[in-house]
Amino acid sequence: MTDTTARPPLPRAPVPHTLEKTLAAQSAGFGADPTDPNDVAYDVRHPTYLGEWETSVPNKHWDIAQDDMDEPHLKRRLAITAKHPEVKELYGIDTNTKWVTLALVSTQVALAYAFGAGPWKDAHWGYMVAVAYLIGATITGVFGVLIHECSHNLAFKTPI
What we know:
Layout: H1 19-27, E1 53-54, E2 66-67, H2 72-83, H3 97-116, H4 125-151
Antiparallel strand pairs: 1-2
Helix pairs in contact: 3-4
């Protein structure tokens, strides 16, 4: 079945932040106490600003949810390096990433062969479930970290 619903043009613009909204919130006293998590600020420069979300409703909005929140990595990096400057020595590209990835992929392929056509093909199904749960799931979690590192161009000396 094909969907004949008209789709809106992409991308949908994010919700604009207005100076009037900021001034109205400040005059009402919002955002005065940055240590109070219930005191929400409406100024994008304020540390407790939560952003304005455009929700993505299936079959109604055809693009992803968007927000105008600030990027948290920068604030966190500055706070950590101010407290622990020695962390900067850990910055940079780790050229071992490709070897870790190759080893993990090889392990998964070897386990698939071992249980499918190799020496463990007649093993009890419980062993396969245990290996998939303990080893396979751990490797899959590491793949998530590796993908994240690649998304920040930290796996190779030059971007791919």
